[in-house]
Amino acid sequence: MALGFKKTISPDDPRLKGHETTYQASRGGWFKRAQQEPQQGKTAKRETRR
Length: 50
Known about the structure:
- Residues 1-50 are annotated as: Disordered.
- It is a single chain.
- Helices cover 0% and strands 16% of the residues.
- It is mostly beta strands.
- A two-stranded antiparallel sheet has the order 1-2.
- A hairpin with a 4-residue loop joins strand 1 and strand 2 (29-32).
- The N and C termini lie far apart (68 Å).
């Protein structure tokens, strides 16, 4: 079995964390998932100069 596992493992197995990939035909194969940065709300207001 791939990755050294002797039996089939479930997709949510914690040992696979950090090894997720997605298939992108436009790029020609399997690639690591892009890290999603936490979205910060635009709550800060700009300072106005007087």
